[in-house]
Each structure stands twice: as structure tokens, then as C-alpha cells.
Amino acid sequence: MSEPRSKRRRTWVFAALLFAQFVLLLLVFELVLAWFFPVSYRRPREAVPGHVWSQLLHRKSTVPGLSYELNPGTSAELRGAQISVNSLGFRGPEISAVKPSNTVRIVAMGASVAFGWTVSNEESYPGHLERRLNERAKGTDRKYEVLNFGVGGYSTRDEVAALEGKALALDPDLVIIDFHPNGPESEPVQPLHQVFHEPEWWENWNVLRLLAHGRRQWGIWTLGGGEQYRYLASPEGPHWPTLLKAYDKAQALCEPRGVPVIIVIFPTLGNRKLWSEYPFADIHAQVIAAATERGFVPVDILPVYTNSGYDVPTIAADAEHPNSLGLDLAAAELERVIVSRHEELLKLPPPGPAVDPKLTSDPAPR
Predict the structure, then answer these.
(1) Gap between the terminal Cα atoms of the chain
(2) In terms of DSSP bridges, do strands 75-78 and 58-60 run parallel, antiparallel, or are they unpaired?
(3) What is the pLDDT, as a whole number, of residue 365?
(4) What are 322's strand-pairing partners?
(5) Separation CA 334–CA 125 (nearest Å)
(6) DSSP class of residue 123?
(7) What is the DSSP code (8-state) at residue 59?
(8) What does pLDDT average to in each consecutive run of 10 residues of the chain (366 residues)?
(9) Smallest Cα–Cα separation from 219: which of 194, 178, 268, 184?
(10) What residues contact 101, with CB distance under 8 A and at least 6 apart?
């Protein structure tokens, strides 16, 4: 009896030694990564006090589903543009929380494209749209407000959380939710998410972040053919279903209130020069199908840009964001859609002359 017991004891000792060696190896690997090759993927970041982007303009959010939001009452200059956040917590001038009479209130939910990266609020697409609609309404007692709820780094899921937690309280007549090919993202990989989200325990370890990064890269190659945006839009991946759930939530929020929803779809600009090189038109069609299925009005900006007469660099602020010209082209298309379907969407006669509902925005001069 003593010999089997002794064998079992030796087996347990051997297993414990193997486990200790494995743990020691992991710790050594972790130290090597931490000292020489830190893994940036999902690494928790600390907000830098007074930093214009991560601390001054943003704060931790108390809205369910949002890790951060714009900081009410702050202002700063960012990338050459003056940023002012009103007391209600979105970019733009002060407004009354109670909608004034004879006012059509539109809320634009989005990320950095709606926010207006590198441009003034007046040059953002909500700003351009508000100007265009009010120019049409001159001579009437009607006024249009287009409230810019864009926040850099937001996913579609964040945009709908902000719609529920903030924008609907302002009694909008129309909701615009914009889509960019990174909109389905459901991981906190954007810098502001890394600053403000509550880290999971494993994110404090370089080794585990490296393994998680490898898993994501595997998904990008197997589901997206090496393209991150295709991975995010893959129905078999973890991200696209979160966008559909967000659209379902927007439908559940807006339909009982009788508030119509427009999904405006922006292309990623990249470093390409010609619109004929754009590789993600099928993703736009996928979004259009999802929006139409839920009774939303899809507005695709890709054909607007393609037919504008401008090449990609002419309307690009950088690889992801349109400049003021590109944002105004988008606003012109939104204006066309809203005016041509005004009675259907807003139950009011359209402001100004009618527009041809079959045409996209007129080509701009070359």
C-alpha cells in the first residue's frame, strides 16, 4: 500500500513542479513583454490631467452603456478647430431643453464624422444641414435645429445608448444615426474607450492581451480576408450582431414615439485617390438592407461623393474624415432626402421649393 501512495505523491510533486515552471515561464514572458515589447492592444490607459482630448473635453459617463461623454461647458482648440460643448453635453451653442414652438428638432447621433473632426461645428454635417434647412425656411415662421451629438470614438452601440440616455429627452422630430465602417466595433480598442472603460482583469497582463490580439487577428484574416472593416461587418463575427442589436433598440425607442430614423452611411476615405478604387460598397449595401428592414430611411453618401466631380483627397481631412466640403456634400444629400420626404417623415409641408426625389445631389463643379 505504501508504494502506490508514494507513487501518487511523486506524481503530484512532479505536476506541481511542472505547474510552477509554467507559471514562472509566464511571469518571465510577461516581464520581457512589459519591459521591451509592451502590448498596446486593449492596454488600460490613464487619462492625462488637463489633456484636451482625454480629460478636458471628455469625462466618464453615468449613462448606461456609455463609458465616456463630452464634458458639459468646456471649450478648447483641437486640431485647428475650436470645440465648445454646451451645458447639455453636446457640441454646439446653448439651446433650450424644451423645444420651442414652430421648431423642427433633428438629432444627429454619430462618432467623429458627425462631431466634425478638424472643422468648426458650423462646418460639421449637422451644422451644414441646419444652415441649409433654415435657408429654405426663410420667410416662414418655422425654424430647424440640428443638434450635433457626435462623439469621437463612439460605435453604433454607443450612439444608440446616447440617443436613449440623452437625445430623446430633447423631444426630437427626426433622428439621424450615421454609419462608418468602424461602427460595428464592440471592443474598447479606440483610445478614448481604453481611457474610460473599466478594465477587465486580464487586460492588465501583456501575455493575455497578446493572446487576445492574436485571436482578433485570426478573425480579421478568416472572416474579413485581412480587412478589418470586413471583419467588423461579418455576420459570423462578434461585432456585426452588436450593430443589429443597436438598430433594433433604436427602432424600439423611436417607433412608439413616431420619430423617424435616417441612417446616413459614410465611406472610409483611406489613402486612395479615385472613388472607383473604393472596396467596401457591399458593406454599404449590407447596412442599407439592415436599415430598410427596420423601417429606417437609408442615405448612402458614397454615390454622392462618386458623382460629385471631386476625387477623394479633395474632400478628405484625413484617411477617415471628410473636410468641410465633403461634409457639406453629405448635408446637401440629407437636405434633399428630408425635403423630398418631408410630409412623410415630419408630417409638415416642406420648406421652400420641391426637389427631385429621384436624384442625388447635383454634381459639384470640377
Answers:
(1) 94
(2) unpaired
(3) 35
(4) 316
(5) 9
(6) G
(7) E
(8) 65 78 81 89 76 73 94 86 93 95 97 94 97 95 97 96 98 98 95 89 93 96 97 98 98 98 97 95 98 98 97 95 97 97 93 63 37
(9) 184
(10) none
Pairing of strands 75-78, 143-148: unpaired
Cell numbers found for residue 197: 472603460
The Cα–Cα gap between 142 and 196 comes to 41
CB 120 within 8 A of CB 186: no
Residue 287's contacts (CB-CB under 8 Å, 6 or more residues apart) are 179, 263, 265, 298
CB-CB neighbours of 201 under 10 Å: 7
Task: Record the cell numbers describing residue 92, joined without a space.
Answer: 454646439
C-alpha cell at 347: 408630417
Give 278-314 as a DSSP string. ---HHHHHHHHHHHHHTT-EEEESHHHHHTSS--HHH
290-305 burial string, b = 16+ CB within 10 Å, else e? bbeebebbbbbbbebb
- Which three cell numbers mark 364? 459639384
Q: Where are the domains of the chain?
A: 52-346
| Amino acid 41: pLDDT | 92
Write down the CATH superfamily of domain 52-346.
SGNH hydrolase (3.40.50.1110)
Give per-residue burial for 89-103: e unless 16+ CB within 10 Å, then b: bbbbeebeeeeeeee
